Amino acid sequence: MSELKAFRLPDVGEGLTEADIVAWHVRPGDPVRVNQVIVEIETAKAVVELPSPWDGTVARLAAEEGQTVEVGVPIIEIDVAAAAGPAAPAEPAAPAAEPVSAERPPASPVAESQERQSVLVGYGVKPGATTRRPRKAAPGTAGPARAAAPAVPAAAGNPPGPAREDRALAKPPVRKLAKDLGISLAGLAGSGPGGSITRDDVQRAAGATAARSGNGQAGAATAAAGGPPREERIPVKGVRKAMAAAMAASAFTAPHVTEFVQVDVTETMAAVRRVRDLPEYSGVRVSPLLFVARALLVAARRHPLINSSWDEDAQQIAVRHYVNLGIAVATDRGLIVPNIKDAGRLTTPELARGLQQLTETARAGKATPADLAGGTITITNVGVFGVDGGTPILTPGEAAILAVGQVRDAPWVVDGQLAVRKACTLSLSFDHRIVDGELGSAVLRDVGSMLEDPVRMLAWT
Predict the structure, then answer these.
(1) Model-level pTM?
(2) In angstroms, rounded to a whole number, what is the distance separating the alpha carbons of residues 310 and 398?
(3) Which of 19, 283, 397, 436 is buried most, with the most CB atoms less than 10 Å from its CB?
(4) What is the mean pLDDT of the chain?
């Protein structure tokens, strides 16, 4: 006799109200164990893995990949009676989800440092009890099957194929695009590796469907040329939706002021090269960002008001005597700002490792809500995009953000003589309710002075 329990989407932190289903790791009929990862969701903060709260067998997936689900809505039903009874004989030929194995290959030191336990709110943490579930194998190789979204009705003019929708070989973002465009994957021939369906395949099918539906000569010409449709709609969800709301709120709430200074960073670039050879930095990717971060931490200690926030309700300024240093990171899902907790207390080698781990984790889509919460001041490195500077928007709840432009050769007067030096533009945006022009200029001048002569960091520490 079955005993079904519905697992409802939990609030994984920060009072979130909804999340998007990114990828299921199980499908109906699969056995599951407590703390086994069953689904990846994308919240307004990050992508989070949710573990199963029970032992049992998956009875039904109540939400499909790409769907937005409100907190408290059931997303999966698990039959827990099967776990209480005698174990059913294994079916070797069934493509069941592979259980977590204790014999998985050892991870690299970097991977081990990034790995985290999945914590379900309300169930607590069992140190060492969870392991990361192996990813889906490459096309043509053996591996656990991933649950797929329910079939999307075939679009007009797109004949249904003999295979079911969940048999189509396509990544979750491609499935979501097909669903948004009303295209059935069952009838598409994939042009990707191993016959997988790509975004281009879906877009070509959408263009052909539009042409057959009489959506204008331009659509027909595009379809005939085999090109993508003339317009694409991207749903605003998850991290991108939260980023847009936060930036709009910040821009129209805090009165922004931005100041600029161009500095000679020749000595800093030389120091970066020397530090890379030190044994304390072995295995760490040392970049100029490390010196920028240390300079901003020193400046925040010299001018504490720059590391504060405006409390509108209490009509107070909260001055923080600790620094959770945020680093703006561009990801496929949008801009996120994870932060290094209590960065001011770290040694420089520890800060270098923290910066490397933070950026690698964020770009891999593994930043947790805790990683993104509680920042006090931010650095955004726009130089990696090949630009000199800009007017960055404050991270909500912070008083300042420092933008670092590209380092490039520039003519510079040194001791009365013209020379070619390494130059960089710094841009500091600040909340003018808290930081006046004098304080903002002092902070920017201090950071620039330390980058021109890194020895000043020692003198001012």
Answers:
(1) 0.58
(2) 8
(3) 19
(4) 79
